[in-house]
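Final report, Chapter 2: Outcomes

The project's central promise was a pipeline that accepts a single protein chain and returns its three-dimensional structure in a standardized token representation, suitable for archiving and comparison. That pipeline is now operational. To close this chapter, we reproduce one record exactly as it appears in the project archive, with the input sequence first and the structure output second.
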Amino acid sequence: MGKEEEIDADTLYNNFAKLHTSGDTEKALSTARKIARNFRDDKIAQECVAICLLQLDRYEDVIDIITRKKLTMPFEQGYALYRLNKIEESKNVLEKCQLPGLKEKELLAQIYYRLEKFQDCIKIYDDLIRNYHDDHDEERLSNYAAAMAAREQMSSSPGVYDNIAESLPPQSNSSYELLFNQSCGFAACGNLEKAEDFINKSIAVFKRANFDELSDDDFKEELSCLQLQKGYILQLQGKLEGLQELYNEALLNANQDPTLLSVANNNIASLGKINNLEMKRKFKALTTSTAKGKLSRAQKQIIEYNTCLYLLTTGQIDPCKKLLSNFSKNSDFVFLPSLTVALLLKEKKFQDALEYLNSFPHLELLRTQVYVQQGVLSKAAQLLRTECKSFKLPIISTLIALYISFEEKDSVDELIQEILTNCRDKQLKIKVLKAVSDLLVERSYFKEALTYLEKLLEICGPEADVLALLISCSSKIDPGLVAKYSQNLPSIGEIIQEIDVSELENSSEQFLVNKYVAKKAAKINVQMNDVIAKKKNKKKKPKLPKNYDPNQPPDPERWLPKWERSVFKKQKKKKQHHHDVGKGAQGSSGSSAFDYSGKPAPVLEKGPPTASDAKPAGAGNKSKSNQKSRSKGGK
């Protein structure tokens, strides 16, 4: 390379550096390409071209130049593949890097997060937090919390996040992203109170820190994400009041972001508080959404599950089958067997449902449901009997109800005796005995109910509700037992002692007052408040006639009617002359002009009959009279 060429290269590189630092990337790219054309063996010039293309978001050109020129740029190549959504290829490029730096590690952690390899992602962030310290420490902590929360969501045994969350910094010094991710982690492990506390603080920090920094659209879009998380936590807690409005506000703030729109539509539809037409529109938007590439696997599963439920409940069997066949590929989803069995039961395929459940021996309760739907209650009772060893109240109460419907009182007695002997939970014993007694009383088995109520009295003591049931049952069987059980009832003085009489009187007035009087009084109060709050109207100028002259006095008779005024003149009536009256012969009539008795009748020529001739004699006259009456009515 000559001396002149070296001077030209240095000049071009200096120009490139100035343009690049000033932010003029297009001109910097043209300068780098000029260097690469003149000095083909200079790989630094080719790398400068690749960096400029990356900054201009021309990712395909970046990959093309790196592969053609065989450049060693793992971060640039991996990032370009990542932005082109070629996640696996990007991972392979970065994993082959022998000496990864900070940029390569952070990008690889992001790729592991996208591939839902959360354990590998957490390991990299753990290393970065310990060994690197710069201005991006808080961002790394936020990503670390997000990876832990996502792992908690996908975990089969959630609850680990509570222990790890202590290693994170205190929430008073945290960014809203870190608080948001911590809220997601607590929600995933079931600690909903902490999750709600963290999301409320995240929203407060976000509004305080970013109100003036972000544009209006970006602010609303970011706030929409926080609002959706808050709505999700409230929905899990059963706090449904005002939740529909919160989701609608988040939907408006989403700014057409497909991921946020999908989550918002799914959550609104899962509330079930919208009409069928709106529900159909929401699920149609979910099935045709373009955000499936950005949603996590857990979010996709929940959206597909809710869509299947909607199709199943609305009787759309074929679309439900089609969606379920695609959904079945995610065989690890916990609700997939119940959804499949529900579809088979909808089609009355009981035997197919039982054969399908052979692959899931842990779902015996679902098999019991199939037997109940099929009407084979004896087999359902046998399965529940084997499950009763766990002493779970819903299973026990269902089995007792089945035994009572079969009138197998001995089986009920045997089951109760087993529970009283082997179960150590006192509260469970009390609940079971109360449930059995209520079922027997409903079926008028008062004698059997009395025996279980006596056992209940031995366990929980002389409680008022138990004694009341005992007295009620004994009065139906043996009135002599009523006095026995009535002795343990508290006296009237003991009952009255705990009652505040003044509070009772005040509460009774609310119920005894006449509703009409109360409503009228409230209406009068409202009207009085309106009168007080009403502003005084301004006096308007009087409207004066066009020819009004303020210098002349007004007419004193202006308020009198015209016919009473002094200047009024009556109009004379015009004389009407009847020319026909008083002329002609008086007292005689031209009867000869109207006498046809002596005149011959006119002769009519005969012709062919018409349709009108075929009608009855009175038809023509009737139709004319009708025409006359109609014409009169139309005037």
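Archive annotation: The two ends are 114 Å apart (CA to CA).
This record, like all others produced under the grant, will remain available to the consortium after the project formally closes.
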